[in-house]
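Q: For a teaching handout, I want to show students what a protein-ligand complex looks like in token form. Below are the inputs, and the small molecule is adenosine-5'-triphosphate. Please produce the holo structure.
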Amino acid sequence: MNAITLQNVTKNFGEVTAVDRLDLEIREGEFLTLLGPSGCGKTTTLRMIAGLEDPNDGEISTKDRILYSKAKGVYIPPEQREMGFMFQSYALWPHMNVSKNISLGLETKKLSREEVNSRVHNVLDQVQMKGYETRYPSELSGGQQQRVALARMIASETGIFLMDEPLSNLDALLRVDMRSELKHLHQTLGATTVYVTHDQMEALTLSDRIVVMNKGRIMQFDTPAEIYHRPKNLFVAKFVGSPPINLISGYIKKRDASKVFLENKDISIDVSSSATALSLADGTEVILAIRPENIRIGSPVQGKPSVPGTVYAVLPSGSETIITARRGESEMRVKVSGFVEYVIDDEIHLEFDSNSILFFDSTTEELITH
Ligand SMILES: Nc1ncnc2c1ncn2[C@@H]1O[C@H](COP(=O)(O)OP(=O)(O)OP(=O)(O)O)[C@@H](O)[C@H]1O
Ligand SMILES: [Mg+2]
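A: Here is the structure, written as tokens, with adenosine-5'-triphosphate included.
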């Protein structure tokens, strides 16, 4: 069952097409994230779902009604859409205490005083902010303010939550903390959640499914695991993952039916153990992609994909170490766990895990599947 459906939704701002014929089916109860670089149309999409932005074309509906339709001339205003918001800029009212910030939105719903008080009490309990009822926003830390904003959204008791970069004002540590809070809350409340972020890590950790957007269009719509392991195109491959995926441009060189290499002027990698590589024609221009954690530093093994390189930099960060190696114009990053030491300018050997190698078509930039 879809909680929200977007069909052919377009939004133009003058010459700029912010959202371009977007089709999206959001399932009931799922945590769906719109992920993409700045300006790709995430906020505009969310605001159209909320009713804060009027599309130029298409249709937006929930499971039981049409919210917007160009063709049918339907437009339901935001306050009647029964959705809870949490926007980055949607700060708390500074002159109202925590209780009032939460109850304000409920008073328009004509609830009894008892009902309002009980909701305020419950939501503050849920975000672990009990006891802060009479504090003013200026007397709270950034993380606590976010929790109150979260509480305010939960208090609306709508089945749909819309969040636009709600954690972007927090420092790194708090952000990780709030991620668990959000995930836990989602599991408890089960509300359909549409979440906007440009932080790929946030998207991967929180979401049931991710929509990767670029220039107002969907580049891939999939589970975090699929997005990470099977990016449909180079854009998604490059946007998701930190440190970024390694890319080596070259062409396929077939020695015989079972021996195939990826070559460029600096590198010759035996990729015979990749079924995809075997299926490619001699001379095909491709981009080999492999994630840093799927490379090992070791000694060359006959028939396995590997490449020599020179240590360029070693970046330990405690739980892991990133080693950058160069070979001609190609630069490769390797991720190994723990503190590992390598000497700059030493020659090392990079061994690729055959099952983790992906190939993209150099022209279309699409993932090659066989
Ligand atoms: N009110 C507006 N008037 C004119 N152009 C706008 C307006 N709002 C958004 N745009 C343009 O539409 C495009 C998409 O903007 P949007 O805010 O949806 O991007 P975003 O993905 O949320 O980016 P960010 O990650 O920076 O928040 C951008 O090119 C932006 O400049
Ligand atoms: Mg935005």
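A: Two things your students might notice: The chain is about 25% helix and 35% strand. Residues 42-43 surround magnesium ion (ligand 2) (CB under 6 Å).
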